[in-house]
């Protein structure tokens, strides 16, 4: 009897905690159907006067570019960055996990040491470097570094996963005539699918929500992603259409949420395991 009471109390607590956590999101969604004045006068979720034109007006934005342009810009930035991050992280982690070469320990220590550097320290050197390359006001400061394995966290994640894969599989593949790249493509990567999905989700969400780095490197409104577009909609010199801003915020939240829920199985498996067992 005591066990049932404890379980019921635990479930009630979790339900209340879940409601508290999800209420702001529900409030944003409900506010997108309210008038601009009602948002600050009605704290409830049900609008007294239902309106849906905030999505249509919000999509048009206030300038010459619609949110269709901003969404397209975001995908142009995020998708190549995610793909190149996966590619470079897998190759670098495979090299550290399966090969012996001079200065391997020192190079791996340098890779891990970059995790200790706060982003604020490297902003100015990176800005000067990208300025000299002529990459400012473009997406190259995000895409090119991803191609060269600059995300140490993902390299370490893949390395730990690959280390959990038995080397006997590599040896069996070599007997069948596979070279190193064939082993990576046919043996390692299929078994690392959970880790790859985890990298994709993390990088997609991080780059999708990135504001500071985009603000530094991109200065043309025509190339703004949605993070800067939402901030641009909050014009302090005029009246902010909060219901339109809430509507666009809901649309901006949807892609990361959909990707997470569709790949949730692999994401949980990739975080909770470090390779195949037994």
UniProtKB/TrEMBL annotation:
Cite the InterPro entries for this sequence: MetI-like, MetI-like_sf
Cross-referenced Pfam families, in alphabetical order?
A: BPD_transp_1 (PF00528)
Cite a GO CC annotation: plasma membrane
Q: Which residues form a coiled coil?
A: none
Q: Does the keyword Oxidoreductase apply?
A: no
Q: Which UniProt keywords apply?
A: Cell membrane, Membrane, Transmembrane, Transmembrane helix, Transport
Tell me which Gene3D superfamilies the record gives: MetI-like (1.10.3720.10)
Please state every residue range assigned to the domain named ABC transmembrane type-1.
Answer: 71-263
Gene Ontology process terms (BP) = transmembrane transport
Localization: Cell membrane
Q: Does the keyword Cell membrane apply?
A: yes
Q: Which topology term describes how it sits in the membrane? A: Multi-pass membrane protein
Q: Which residues cross the membrane?
A: 9-30, 77-96, 108-128, 140-162, 183-205, 242-263
Report the sequence similarity comment from the record.
Answer: Belongs to the binding-protein-dependent transport system permease family.
Instruction: Give the protein name, as stated in the record.
Output: Carbohydrate ABC transporter permease
Tell me what organism the protein belongs to.
Paenibacillus thalictri
The record lists the lineage as: Bacteria, Bacillati, Bacillota, Bacilli, Bacillales
């Amino acid at each position: 009897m005591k066990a049932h009471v404890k379980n019921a109390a635990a479930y009630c607590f979790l339900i209340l905690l879940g409601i508290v956590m999800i209420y702001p999101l529900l409030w944003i969604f409900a506010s997108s159907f309210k008038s601009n004045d009602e948002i600050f006068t009605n704290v409830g979720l049900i609008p007294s006067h239902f309106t849906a034109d905030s999505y249509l007006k919000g999509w048009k934005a206030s300038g010459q570019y619609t949110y269709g342009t901003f969404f397209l810009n975001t995908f142009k930035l995020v998708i190549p960055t995610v793909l190149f991050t996966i590619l470079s992280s897998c190759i670098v982690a495979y090299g550290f996990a399966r090969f012996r070469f001079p200065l391997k320990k020192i190079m791996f220590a340098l890779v891990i040491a970059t995790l200790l550097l706060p982003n604020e320290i490297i902003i100015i050197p990176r800005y000067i470097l990208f300025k000299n390359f002529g990459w400012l006001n473009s997406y190259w400061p995000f895409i090119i570094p991803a191609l060269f394995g600059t995300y140490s966290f993902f390299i370490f994640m893949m390395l730990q996963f690959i280390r959990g894969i038995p080397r006997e599989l590599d040896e069996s593949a070599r007997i069948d005539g596979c070279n190193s790249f064939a082993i990576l493509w046919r043996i390692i990567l299929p078994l690392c699918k959970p880790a790859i999905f985890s990298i994709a989700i993390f990088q997609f969400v991080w780059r999708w929500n990135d504001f500071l780095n985009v603000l530094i490197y991109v200065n043309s409104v025509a190339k703004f992603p949605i993070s800067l577009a939402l901030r641009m909609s909050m014009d302090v010199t005029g009246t902010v259409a909060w219901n339109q801003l809430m509507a666009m915020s809901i649309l901006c939240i949807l892609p990361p949420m959909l990707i997470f829920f569709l790949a949730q199985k692999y994401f949980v498996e990739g975080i909770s395991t470090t390779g195949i067992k037994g």
